[in-house]
Amino acid sequence: MTDFWNRTRKLTAAQQYFGLANSLICRGHGKVHQGNVVWEFEARPTLLSRTYRVRIRYQERKGSPLVYVVDPDLSGLAKGRRVPHVYEQKPARLCLYLPRTGQWSPDLRIVDTIVPWTYLWLFYFEEWLVSDEWKGGGEHPSPEEKLACAERNGFE
Amino acid sequence: MLAVDALLRKVQLTGLLEMLCQEVELTDSQIEDAKKHYEAVGSWLTSASLLYPSLIYPQGSISLRTTVRPIGQEEYDVDLVCLVNGLSDSTSPTDLKQHIGDLLKTNGQYKDILEEKPRCWRLNYAKKFHLDITPSIPNPRCMQGGELVPNKLPDRRISGWKPTNPKGYQKWFDENGKLQPRFRLTEDALAKARAGVEAIPEQKGFKGLLRRCVQLCKHHRNEMFANRKDRDNAPISIILTTLASKSYAYCCTSSVVHDTELDLLVEVVRSMPRFIEVSEVGNRRYYNIPNKTTQGENFAEKWNADENLARTFFTWQKEAVAVFEKMAELSGLDEVASHFSKSFGDSVSKRAIGRLTTAISEARPRGLLSVIPGVGLSVGVARSNPVRSNTFFGA
Fold first, then answer.
1. Of A49, A127, A141, Cβ closest to residue B394
2. Residue A48 and residue B389: Cβ atoms within 8 Å?
3. Measured between alpha carbons, how far is B32 from A59 in angstroms, rounded to an integer?
4. Are B36 and B42 within 8 A, CB to CB?
5. Alpha-carbon distance A124 to A92, whole Å?
6. Residues B350, A92: Cα–Cα separation, whole Å
7. Rounded to an integer, what distance in angstroms lies between the CA atom of residue B309 and that of residue B252?
8. Taking CB atoms and an 8 Å cutoff, what residues of chain A touch B373?
9. Nearest chain B residue to A95, by CA
10. What is the tens place of the pLDDT at every residue in A34-54?
């Protein structure tokens, strides 16, 4: 059933937390409190890759998950180059989806969307370290979009 | 869990080395092309009434399927033997060689691309390959069906015949290649463990373990010596091939159980020196790497005239062990890529690793990408945790 009402029913922070806590692809720890979720886990995009510690913060009220790579320091690995497709460089906050396109919406499970995209992002990041070319595709925001995005995601 | 994890990483590294080998070896069509040409030379020599029935056949890397593309040179070598039956070793090797050369010169097609070498005739097919044709006669004293070829002295002069046995060697090499090493995981268990990695295409491990070991040694040698002053001292292919083959047979028949093909590769290269026979007379060392398929052929003969050659071999071997051993410790595609580039050359390494990226990038829009716990991104088994379509946004 993918009728209109189901599609737009937001998942609660607790539901998102439950999804993350019960998945084998993002085993870690976190908490859920008053509509806020923090989840930290280790992700290794391929067998030949590094293991990255990732932190997801989600505010039910705002509806956009923030994804940080807390360790290792990506800008250190980039050796002076600007890391592509991030909102912030340090710690790197990843741009994983195109806003307002329905790729992400609060009725989707973070564990089914944001988490796999994080793996994919990390894969292309390592590839970028090698080739200096972002092969993951994507779009760059206009200045207005950047601003809107920052406001929407203001979490700190 | 951790142990399986380490095994799977090594399986994936082996897959990457396999791709590398595919990048550096001659293609089937290149080999077919060479074959067409040398068969034509063979027919010509026979029809041009060489006094005795003769046979042209390939020896060395083409017949062993251990080719590696040379670095910085467009043409690759195709080593051929022109076996002339019915001649005894009282025949002068210089005369026989001259006779073959004279016949080749009577053919307008060959006349202009013919080049004389101390022991053989070379046909230069520009931008393709050289056919090196070495005359040989049967060796009546070899019980294993060996042959005799002109003996080249250090000053490049030819003096008499020396024993060799290309066909016997090929048979010996192929027999060794058929030996199966013992791995800790059974094929079945490994197949299950691989299920995730499988995904990334061509992760099936080495195609022919022994020949891949030889190719990796040879290619690493080429790369290591490409810009060194002592590159003329680099260990020759027949020595790498023989020692790898003996070492491989040893690793297969010993009671040692290897974790993965990568561990076996390390062990094969590490054990190579065991098969160099060294004897000391006074202050001098004598090296012998015998050809097991005939009497009296020592592949390390030149080492006894110039000990630098032996030293250079050991320098290469130590470095090669370190290169293959280090692989398991690398973390990050970027670290893997830079290690490969340093050890095997930038462009072939990038192409090998690029195949991994391409596999993932092509699977993504087709919805064939998923995340497997403990493995990461996988292609083609999108049963759980599929990676949905997304667009990376941001600066």
1. A141
2. no
3. 65
4. no
5. 14
6. 27
7. 29
8. 24-25, 27
9. B393
10. 999 999 999 999 989 999 999
Reference B19, options B340, B295, B380; nearest CA is: B340
Average pLDDT value for residue range A57-78: 95
B51 is written with which tokens? Answer: 């006094």
Angstrom distance (rounded) from CA B175 to CA B34: 25
- Per-residue pLDDT tens over the stretch B283-337: 899 999 999 999 999 999 999 999 999 999 999 999 999 999 999 999 999 999 9
Q: Which is higher by pLDDT, B187 or B245?
A: B245
Q: Can you tell me the distance from the alpha carbon of B370 to that of A115, in angstroms, rounded to the nearest whole number?
A: 11
Q: What are phi and psi of B129, to 5 degrees?
A: -160, 170
Strand spans (E) along B224-281: 277-281
Query: CB of B394 within 8 Å of any CB in chain A?
Result: yes
Q: Please name the residues in contact with B207: beta carbons below 8 A apart, sequence gap of 6 or more.
A: B18, B21
CB-neighbour burial class of residue B126 (10 A; exposed 0-12, middle 13-18, buried 19+)? exposed
Range in A18-27, B53-62, B243-252, B302-311 with the lowest mean pLDDT:
B53-62
Three-state DSSP class for residue B310? helix
In chain A, which residues have their Cβ closer than 8 Å to the Cβ of B336? 48
Mean pLDDT of chain B: 89
Q: How far apart are the first and last CA of chain A?
A: 37
Contact flag B336-A51 (C-beta cutoff 8 Å): no
For every residue of B56-73, DSSP letters joined together read: EEE-THHHHT---PPTT-
Place of tokens 């070492």: B247
Compare CB distances from A25 to B200, B369, B373 and report the shortest one's residue: B373
Q: Residue B243: helix, strand or coil by DSSP?
A: helix
Q: Domains in chain B and their CATH numbers?
A: 2-25+173-356 (no CATH), 28-167 (3.30.460.90), 364-395 (no CATH)
Burial of A29 from C-beta contacts in 10 A (0-12 / 13-18 / 19+):
exposed
Quick check: A48 and B12 CB within 8 A?
yes
Q: Rounded distance, CA B6 to CA A30, Å?
A: 28
Question: Which of B9, B347, B360, B371 best probes binding to A when mutated, by most A CB atoms within 10 angstroms?
Answer: B371
DSSP string, A19-72: HHHT-GGG-EEEEEETTEEEEEEEE-SSTTSPPEEEEEEEETTT---EEEEEES
Nearest-neighbour CA in chain B from A59: distance (Å): 20
Q: Do B392 and A115 touch (CB under 8 A)?
A: no
